[in-house]
Known about the structure:
The protein is built from 2 helices and no strands. α1 packs parallel to α2. The longest helix is centred in the last third of the chain and has 31 residues, at 39-69. By secondary structure, the chain is mainly α.
Amino acid sequence: MFFKKKKDQKVILDSLEILEQYLKNDINSISTEINTKSKYYNQIESKLHSIVDLIQNKNQTNLTVYGEIM
Length: 70
C-alpha cells in the first residue's frame, strides 16, 4: 500500500470500513471528523468524507421523496 505512517493508514482504512458498513445499511450515519495527522492523508480522508456527504444527502433526499409518496 502507499501509506507510510501506520496510524494514518489505520485511520483511512477505518474510514473505508465505516463507509462500507453505511453502504450495507449496518449503520445509519457517519461522523465526518478528520483524524489523520499528515497533510497528504488529510486530503485523502477529506475526499472520503466528501463522498460520504454526497451519499448521505442523496439518501436523505430519497427518504424525503418516499415519505411524501406515502
